[in-house]
Every structure is written in C-alpha cells, then in structure tokens.
Amino acid sequence: MDLLKTQTQLSLSELRNTLIRLEDTIIFGLIERAQFKSNDIIYQQGAFHFDNGFTGSFLEYLIWELEKAHAKVRRYQSPDEYPFTPADHQPPLPAPILPALDYPPILHPNHININAQILTMYTASLIPQACAPGDDSNYGSSATKDVECLQNLSKRIHYGKFIAESKFQDPQYHDQYVQLIKARDAKGIYQLLTNEAVERKLLRRLRRKATIYGQDIDDDDATATATANAAGPSKISPDVVVDLYEKYVIPLTKQVEVDYLLQRLD
C-alpha cells in the first residue's frame, strides 16, 4: 500500500479514506459470494480427501495453497497483510522469492493476528446470513470467493493497528493513552478509542451502499438511477452488511487496537 511505503506519520483521515474504500470491496465481495448457496460441506473438517495428507476443510486447504504462492511474492511482508495459515503450521509458509521492500517503521513491533477468529466468524455466522442454504456443487467458486472476502475482512480489521498508532500519536490524547497503557487498563483504552458518532455514520453509510450496490440497474432507461428506494430483489441484504460491521468488524477492529496499544510501550 502506497500510504505505508511513503509515510512514517499516520493521518487518521487518510486511514479512514482507506477503510471507506475497503467497504466497497467487502460489499462487492459478499455480493459475489452470495450468488452461490452456502455449500456448508466446504467448511467441514474431513469432508474431502487430500493426497498430501492435509486434514482441514476444503476452504482451509485452498487458503493454504493460495497463501503459499502469495508468501513467495512477499504478500505477507507488507505491514497490512496477515496470513490465515498459523505461524506454527508445519510446513511453514515459504520465504519470498522477491527481495524485501523497505517499509518505514510505522507500527510498533507486534505479532497480533486474529485471523482464526475472523475465519470462525465468517463460516459460522456470516455465510449462513449472506447465502441461501443448500448445496449447488459450486465448491471451488464458493471457496475462491470466500478467500477473497476473508482477505479483505482481515485487512480491514487489522487496520486497527494503524488506527491505534495514529490515535496514540495524537498530541491531544497521547498522555492519556500512556497512562492507560501503564495501568494495563484495557477497558479505559477501549472507551478512549471509541467514537460512537463515527460508528453510527459508518453504519448508515454501509446500509446505503449495500442497498444501492445490491440492485440491478435497468440501462434501457437513460434516466434510471440507483437509490435507497430502488425496487427489485437485492443481491445482498443491507441488514447482513450492517450486522457484519456492527457485531463483528467494529468490535474485532477495536480488539486489535486495544491489543496493539497494550504492547505499545513494551
């Protein structure tokens, strides 16, 4: 990401612009996944046999195979990318075949990665809401879309580190954060991080976006426009998108922020 390659000081407004762009990516990804049924079998351990002895689900197998290729082209060297493959996985992800890039030291050193929680949330809670139940045999297509959605959700949630660092650097609140960190006051840090007005605005924006993006536009009518009152079936329920952010994305992002700040003075 260009922002992370060129700056050592973080702008909260620029970070929020990045998160707003990710909203579009996440919504369109869910729309793509929702064209297939839930296909629950791809999330079940042991439902498929793999010649290499892999014992996880079909989705976990695809994640592992794709992340091996992504690791070779240094995807996980970027400070805003995190693999779903556990750090202690054997064999581990391969080393990059490309030379390392010189990213400025924006973040305090940390090993926070909550992708295991994100994967559980996605398969257990989000898929049953976003997709029609049943099996249409589109296992490969469904799992490929799953990987894309998971990667985008992971990036969005782990951006909490950059948000936390930006707030920590803010002279207006820096001393308060230092005091709370020294006191190991996770609840106090959470409260100081929270901006309910911004969160309400975010949820309203998401509902409008999901309503508009989920509609088919009749291009035979030159005056047709997409509005929040557009008629016709939606490709994704706006409630699903809003619930995803309200119940999971926002809380998990703040979990990352709190965990990061608790390590900030180490």
UniProtKB/TrEMBL annotation:
- Say if the entry is tagged with keyword Isomerase: yes
Q: Which GO terms describe its biological process?
A: chorismate metabolic process; L-phenylalanine biosynthetic process; tyrosine biosynthetic process
Q: Where in the cell is it found?
A: Cytoplasm
Primary location group:
cytoplasm
Q: Which InterPro entries match?
A: Chorismate_II_sf (IPR036263), Chorismate_mutase_AroQ_euk (IPR008238), CM_AroQ_sf_eucaryotic (IPR037039), CM_II_prokaryot (IPR002701)
What molecular functions are annotated in GO for this chain?
A: chorismate mutase activity
Q: Which reaction does it catalyse?
A: chorismate = prephenate
Q: Recite the UniProt keywords alphabetically.
A: Amino-acid biosynthesis, Aromatic amino acid biosynthesis, Cytoplasm, Isomerase, Phenylalanine biosynthesis, Tyrosine biosynthesis
Query: So, what pathway does this thing act in?
Result: Metabolic intermediate biosynthesis; prephenate biosynthesis; prephenate from chorismate: step 1/1
One GO CC term of this entry? cytoplasm
**Gene3D superfamilies in the record, alphabetically?**
Chorismate mutase, AroQ class superfamily, eukaryotic
- Boundaries of every Chorismate mutase domain copy: 142-257
What protein is this chain from?
Chorismate mutase
Its ancestry begins with: Eukaryota, Fungi, Fungi incertae sedis, Zoopagomycota, Kickxellomycotina
